[in-house]
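Posting for a labmate who doesn't have an account.
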Amino acid sequence: MAARQPRFNQQVLIDTTPLPDSIPPVKEIGATSAPLFSAAYFIGARCKPYNDDFMHCKTLANGKGEIECLKEGRKVTRCAASVLEDINKHCLTEFRQHWECLENYNQQLWNCRRPERRLNKCVFDNLVSPQNPPRHYSQETQTSIDPILTYITYIAMMS
């Protein structure tokens, strides 16, 4: 048996150090998992370039980069917030029905296909223009430049 008594620290630590001016401020989304899960496809489609930049930054920082990648992370948050704002503006009832269904059925998608179809129809009718469908992998454009990839491409072109 252990002679030492366990100690639990229940205090909340808040870092009051202000962020540098180079990192743009962003308001947090403040949504629970069900609305985010309901809008995940549309967030992923519209915010893919920002997500790719953020993941690229994290890769270059070897999985760390909390401070170095804050700027890219804030862009992802801002983009996701704009998607949710647009969906709430144009398809509020369908969106609410779908995420409430997900909430009630433990976020199992197969139970909520009917409200999902209504949400998809509303979003594609009101938000997604035929000229600008959600991006596919063949239409990718990289928004940041990887120096290693550029060097490898340069070497391949020279040989």
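Reply:
Got it, the structure tokens are right above this. Residues 5 and 11 are 19 Å apart (CA to CA).
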